[in-house]
Amino acid sequence: MSTRTLKVVTVSGSLQEPSKTVALTEQIVETLATRLPVENHRIDIHKLGAGFTGARHPDDLPESVLDEMRLLAEADLVIAASPVFRASYTGLFKHFFDLIENQYALANKLVLLAATGGSDRHALVLEHQFRPLFGFFQALTVPVALYASSGDFDGMQILNPEVHARIEVAVDDIAELLRARVGGTATEPAPAGDSGPYEGVTRV
Questions:
Q1: Average pLDDT over residues 170-192
Q2: Fewer beta carbons below 10 Å: N end or C end of the chain?
Q3: pTM beyond cutoff 0.85
Q4: Straight-line distance from the first to the last Cα atom of the chain, in angstroms, rounded to the nearest whole number
Q5: Do 52 and 58 meet the contact criterion of CB atoms below 8 Å apart?
Q6: Taking CA 84 as the corner, what is the angle to CA 104 and CA 51, rounded to the nearest 5 degrees?
């Protein structure tokens, strides 16, 4: 018996393209798609425009950004990722979550935390900055968080086998939690091209 296709929403706090942060999240989604049928919608915060960056209140947000926040609230899994700047996530990443009006929008939602940085010295940012943010929303952040430093990449490709191994561990944990929540025992990915209502579907 197969479970339904699961909605994954990735929120990327990267400020540029190409992006190591996006490369990390794409590897996570690709690995998850080998366990469960998923469709991924990526929110690139740096592309949300001046209506987002200039907003001071949720009422100021354009409808396009509110649509992204609705997709986030409907997701089965959120992958929250950002590069590290000054020992924290990017300002636009925080701005996005500051403007979510309903503080319970992510309550009990599965969230996987991920970050990239210049060196391994920044790895604890996931515990000291990311996890408390989603604790405020009462989200269920999975225990395994993922961090990759610049030395783990060749360009935009992850080469460090330890990072790949940690992704496998995290994805196995997530897959079990998702199966328990939605039922079914699916292990096959969704058929290629079956993107559903989300745009920007990736299995990479």
A1: 72
A2: N
A3: yes
A4: 25
A5: no
A6: 55
β-partners of residue 196 are: none
pLDDT for position 120: 87
Rounded to whole angstroms, how far apart are CA atoms 39 and 8?
A: 6
The residues, ordered by sequence, that sit 6+ positions from 19 with a Cβ below 8 Å of its Cβ are 12, 83, 156
For residue 87, give the 3-state DSSP assignment. Answer: coil
DSSP H or E segment with residue 93: helix 91-98
33 with 185: CB under 8 angstroms? no
In the prediction, which pLDDT does 2 show?
54
Alpha-carbon distance of 194 to 196, in angstroms, equals 6
The pair of three-digit structure tokens given for residue 106, joined into one six-digit string: 């992510």
CA distances (Å), origin 193, targets 9, 86, 89, 203: 18, 40, 33, 10
